[in-house]
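Quick illustration, no need to memorize.
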Amino acid sequence: MVPTAFVTSDLSPNQLERLSQRCRVKQGGWGRIGVRLTPDELVEAAAEAEILLVSYEPVPAQVIRELPRLQLIGCTRSTPVNIDIAAATARRIPVLHTPGRNTQTAAEFTIGLMLSEAHRIARAHHALRSGHYLSAPASDPTVTDDSGDVTWNLDGKSSFKDFQGIELAGRCLGIIGLGKIGSRVAQLAQAFDLRVVSYSPYTSPTEAEALNVQLVELDTLLQQADFISVHANVTSETQGMLGERELNLMKPGAYLISISRAAVIDQAALVKALQEGRIAGAALDVFWSEPLPANHPLITLENVTLTPHLAGATHDVRERHSQMIVEDVLAWLDGRRPKYIANPDVM
């Protein structure tokens, strides 16, 4: 009997075709229409499915309970936080996931934010697009200046002065959390001649040495680093770990980079530090409430770069998580043990 797979994940066409060769595939929800199904809608849509593959739809105990034919759940995220693992485990249903799917993309994005802050790239772009540092309209704006020394205005108010930045080379990067993404950031950063230190309590000295990273205490990192990149998961220990005291330990010329989870940083303390110029700036891809409220004080600040949770958004990530999840589904169908199981004791 051919099993039915209900798919709300945004799977790539070639991997969806692989799955279709073994399953009766039905699609809906976020991957198809860009809108997540509610639990009740998911139960109705997946009523005949033995396999459920999601990205962002919540799969609470209700869904697991009300889908009696369900035998396998897959989630194309690094951590399946939207799935009730305990409820799935109680029914001996394996939960597949795709750890590390966005490691390279997120690490590259982190380096991009560091470069943007160091060289004022985003702020200079915004200024130019907003009409600053431009000359009067020309009859033919595409005419080339043949003087041989084409420069922006250097007299009076000058973009060259206003957006003067710093180089990465020779400076110190402090990484909070040497997991998959933090470790990859450390590797990429050293290509820019950055010295890398890390506060990562669960990383062994041997692991850090292999990355050419010096493990230090958090206070030491805050005092030494010119760039601080946050890659810690939110736990009872890390929630709000970067508060007013910690931010006050940072160098006045240091930059805070965050693409992981905003809750690690005390929101009010960071806003205050930026408003007062206590630190040079910040680049944030994640926030305490998303989407970011239109009247949030961060939007008005000149010393911050903001992006709308894009660090993992590439076509490469889509292809990678598609391949990972489909290969594990096919392994399960063949009676082999899937590679990435969030509740491994069920198999």
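Residues 315-333 form the longest helix (19 residues).
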